[in-house]
Structure to design on (896 residues):
């Protein structure tokens, strides 16, 4: 909703009922307060009104001094009409009904009426409005307009020009929300058509949203094309696990198979949007490669076995409490699964060799900048990005890595004028609205950070401890520029722009750089010295959860650091390659394609005696496995996920798991039970109860409290950790 | 006493009824010798479904699932796909790759026929639907689709004897 200029209240009368509304509120919104609805096409609460379709016509008048109402001679568009004192609105008069019929008749003149084959049929605003407000028959006998049908705008979006009613929602979305301005109108009048510039591909990270907001079937999904009709589908709420933002989605399925993903409103996270990676990235649920049955290596063949046999084999091959097992996990496992994974490794196999981090460098968990409830990594909430005066985006392709933060930041820029400064080594989407975009030489991030800090010190804006200051001041801008191609002027300009309330955004992908840790530290000094919120966000769907739940070699779930830490990812891989650990348990993901040193992984997988691969899909890693355990995908299980800002959100079982697959927490729970280390866990919520008791920042979490927008976990203060130690 | 009232009287009563029926033997017979004879059907009798074709031979069904949506027994399953220039099943963009009706669940209400925008699915007069296995009642697209346009136009002829079931004209 457009931010209201003033909160002054005015009295309007809607259908003879008096109503207090803020001055300037659009009438189409005001009538909702009475539970009334004005039919609309082009109006969208999150975009500026344009009054293009005329569907929302209402009769308007003004109360005169003598109490009579003087009506305007013509109806007005409710979506562009701001409320004012003494306004009188009729949404139900005969004139309004006649006008709506007329508007719909005009809209339908050129509409092909191919509803039976249209993917929007059954959930189409044009169908609905015609049914409720339109004429029941057509008087049009002339020849209809003909235009492009089923034109692929991109690999995701198909355009049917005949169906378009020229409401401009799609064009405005790309201009106002996603900011890539990929769509525009060509021609005028009846031949007006939305199109990309010069008909090139519709390239956007958020193109899927236009499918959902198009009020007719003009823009449809190429992936969903003809796969089902809305009444064939069942739908359940779910969380997207394709990145760390945790967008809320509707998961539509048919006959037990995933069919499509739509955005679900959560004002705190994704409003109502999704990114293309989320919207079109769930096809693997139906993949042929899904693992269905536990497999055990007998000789050089993998044979299907029962779960009991698989567990037996694992417990036999891996002696309990010997500390000879390493555990590596990727971030699409639920909180419950992650917690029990580390518990199993620690209690059953007596090993602290457990890690979820696949970046080249890993901060020790006591490092103030690591993710997972560390006080210096502020994890600024996504919704807060609307409010900052300035922001520094450092070395992260924001639209790819943190799509929802990107959208909010852009919203902040368009509503509040946030000054955005971007440092990137490649072309990025933010360029379109950034006050300053600086491209540096790839791989020189640490020098760029130094340059920033130096410019900040020079401008007297940044306070840092003495020894840091000395080190930085010893550097010269020329020398810095020789490494990273960024000039003193650019650094100074950037520092000039960063003022007021602000935020620095980077992500864990920085740690993939050889000098990642150094870069982060300098950047944090810069940010803190400037009084900004420093953020280094997690990347995987549940990386933030993994860090907080202690899936780490050097920290327990209760926050206590380990005196003798286990091995981290690199250590585990190395130990496996040298056969210093005898077993490796890999959960989800494909380490071979994920880790920067493919060779290290292959060496580890080849040399470890006993490899347990637990996952949803067969992949290269699975080829090396001694035991394969099929795991349920996120939407096939009960569980919770912790997103990038520390918000715990609930996932319910949407579709049936394939074959014999089990939920991650159940697998670990059963190993714990078999080896006599714990009571049985009967449900995921029981696991969460235990987590709430053990992990300080999860203290408030119960499944009941996760309804709606989920629960935002507090950042652990440094005293939490300390009190545990003492 | 009891013997007369409880035994003899009911027997006589029953026999009288039999005698009365016997006297009418040969008149007003309602039983027919199916399958040698077929009972006449009403014009609007609805039995087995067919998927029809246009005169051009193209399928009428566009895979829109409206029949499935209208079906109160939820016994129709439609899966659509896109026609291509080289592989064209129906006019327009869309056709049904898979079309199934579960005849055990069907209540022969004809709503599907009513809902169909192209007149593709129709219920005709083939009532000889008995079969041995449950699976045999899942009618697939191959079973439902006419071989040529108008293949199964009424009236219906028995599968067993070839005798025609007349249409009741009143
Ligand atoms: S394609 Fe859809 S959203 Fe875009 S102008 Fe046409 S009707 Fe509106
Ligand atoms: S006749 Fe009625 S019950 Fe049978 S398939 Fe058609 S709609 Fe369904
Ligand atoms: S039979 Fe008719 S209603 Fe059913 S899918 Fe085919 S065209 Fe649509
Ligand atoms: S909704 Fe008001 S003109 Fe379109």
């Amino acid at each position: 909703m457009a931010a209201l200029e003033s909160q002054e209240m005015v009295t309007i009368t809607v259908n003879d009922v008096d109503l207090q509304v803020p001055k300037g509120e659009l009438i189409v919104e005001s009538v909702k307060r009475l539970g009334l609805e004005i039919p609309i096409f082009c109006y969208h609460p999150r975009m500026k009104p344009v009054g293009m379709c005329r569907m929302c016509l209402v009769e308007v008048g003004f109360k005169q001094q003598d109490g009579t109402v003087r009506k305007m001679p013509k109806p007005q568009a409710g979506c562009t009409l701001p409320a004012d004192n003494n306004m009188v609105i009729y949404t139900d008069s005969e004139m309004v009904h006649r006008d709506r019929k007329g508007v719909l008749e005009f809209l339908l003149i050129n509409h092909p009426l191919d509803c039976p084959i249209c993917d929007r049929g059954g959930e189409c605003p044009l169908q609905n409005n015609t049914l409720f407000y339109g004429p029941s028959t057509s008087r049009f006998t002339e020849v209809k307009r003909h235009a492009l049908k089923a034109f692929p705008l991109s690999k995701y979006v198909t355009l049917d020009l005949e169906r378009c009613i020229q409401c401009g929602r799609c064009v405005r979305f790309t201009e106002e929300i996603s900011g890539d301005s990929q769509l525009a109108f060509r021609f005028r009048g009846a031949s007006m058509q939305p199109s990309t510039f010069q008909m090139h591909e519709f390239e956007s990270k958020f193109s899927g949203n236009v499918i959902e907001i198009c009020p007719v079937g003009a823009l449809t999904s190429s992936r969903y094309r003809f796969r089902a009709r809305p009444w064939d589908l069942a739908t359940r709420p779910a969380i997207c696990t394709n990145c760390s933002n945790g967008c809320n989605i509707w998961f539509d399925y048919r006959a037990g198979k995933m069919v499509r993903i739509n955005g679900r409103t959560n004002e705190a996270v994704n409003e109502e949007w999704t990114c293309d990676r989320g919207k079109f990235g769930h096809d693997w649920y139906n993949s042929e490669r899904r693992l269905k049955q536990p497999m055990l290596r007998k000789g050089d063949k993998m044979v299907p076995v029962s779960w009991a046999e698989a567990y037996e084999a694992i417990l036999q091959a891996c002696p309990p409490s010997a500390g000879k097992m390493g555990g590596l996990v990727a971030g699409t496992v639920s909180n419950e699964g992650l917690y029990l994974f580390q518990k199993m490794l620690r209690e059953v196999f007596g090993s602290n060799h457990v890690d979820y981090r696949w970046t080249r460098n890993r901060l020790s968990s006591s490092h103030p900048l690591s993710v997972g409830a560390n006080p210096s990594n502020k994890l600024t909430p996504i919704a807060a990005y609307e409010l900052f005066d300035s922001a520094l985006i450092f070395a992260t392709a924001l639209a790819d890595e943190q799509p929802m933060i990107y959208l909010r930041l852009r919203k902040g820029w368009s509503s509040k004028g946030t000054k955005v400064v971007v440092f990137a080594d490649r072309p990025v989407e933010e360029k379109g609205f950034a006050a300053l975009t600086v491209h540096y030489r790839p791989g020189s991030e640490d020098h760029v950070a130094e340059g920033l800090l130096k410019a900040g010190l020079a401008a007297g804006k940044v306070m840092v401890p003495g020894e840091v200051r000395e080190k930085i001041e010893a550097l010269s801008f020329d020398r810095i520029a020789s490494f990273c191609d960024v000039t003193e002027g650019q650094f100074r300009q950037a520092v000039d722009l960063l003022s007021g309330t602000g935020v620095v955004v980077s992500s864990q992908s920085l740690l993939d750089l050889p000098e990642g840790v150094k870069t982060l530290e300098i950047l944090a000094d810069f940010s803190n010295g400037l009084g900004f919120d420093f953020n280094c966000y997690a990347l995987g769907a549940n990386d933030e959860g993994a860090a907080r739940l202690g899936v780490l070699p050097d920290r327990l779930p209760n926050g206590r650091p380990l005196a003798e830490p286990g091995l981290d990812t690199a250590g585990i891989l190395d130990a496996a390659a040298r056969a210093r650990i005898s077993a490796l348990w890999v959960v989800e993901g494909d380490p071979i394609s994920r880790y920067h040193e493919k060779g290290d992984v292959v060496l580890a997988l080849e040399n470890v005696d006993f490899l347990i691969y637990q996952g949803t899909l067969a992949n290269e890693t699975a080829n090396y496995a001694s035991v394969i355990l099929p795991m349920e995908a996120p939407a096939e299980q009960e569980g919770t996920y912790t997103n990038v800002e520390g918000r715990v959100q609930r996932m319910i079982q949407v579709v049936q798991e394939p074959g014999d697959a089990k939920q991650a927490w159940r697998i670990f729970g059963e190993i714990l039970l078999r080896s006599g280390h714990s009571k049985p866990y009967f449900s995921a919520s029981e696991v969460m109860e235990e987590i709430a008791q053990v992990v300080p920042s999860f203290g408030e979490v119960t499944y009941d409290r996760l309804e709606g927008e989920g629960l935002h976990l507090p950042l652990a203060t440094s005293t939490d950790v300390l009190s545990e130690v003492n | 006493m009891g013997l007369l009232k409880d035994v003899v009287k009911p027997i006589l009563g029953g026999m009288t009824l039999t005698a009365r029926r016997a006297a009418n033997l040969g008149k007003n017979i309602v039983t027919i010798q199916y399958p040698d004879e077929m009972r006449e059907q009403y014009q609007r009798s609805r039995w087995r479904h067919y998927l029809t074709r246009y005169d051009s031979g193209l399928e009428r069904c566009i895979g829109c699932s409206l029949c499935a949506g209208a079906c109160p027994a939820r016994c129709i399953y439609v899966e659509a796909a896109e026609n291509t220039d080289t592989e064209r099943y129906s006019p327009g963009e869309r056709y049904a790759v898979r079309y199934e009706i579960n005849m055990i669940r069907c209540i022969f209400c004809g709503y599907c026929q009513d809902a169909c925008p192209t007149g593709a699915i129709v219920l005709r007069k083939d009532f000889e639907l008995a079969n041995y296995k449950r699976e045999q009642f899942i009618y697939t697209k191959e079973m439902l689709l006419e071989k040529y346009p108008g293949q199964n136009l009424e009236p219906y002829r028995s599968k067993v004897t070839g005798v025609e079931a007349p249409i009741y004209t009143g």
Observations:
- The beta strands of chain B are 49-51, 76-82, 94-102, 121-123, 138-139.
- The pocket of iron/sulfur cluster (ligand 3) is lined by residues B 61-67, 78, 96, 115-116, 118, 120-121 (CB under 6 Å).
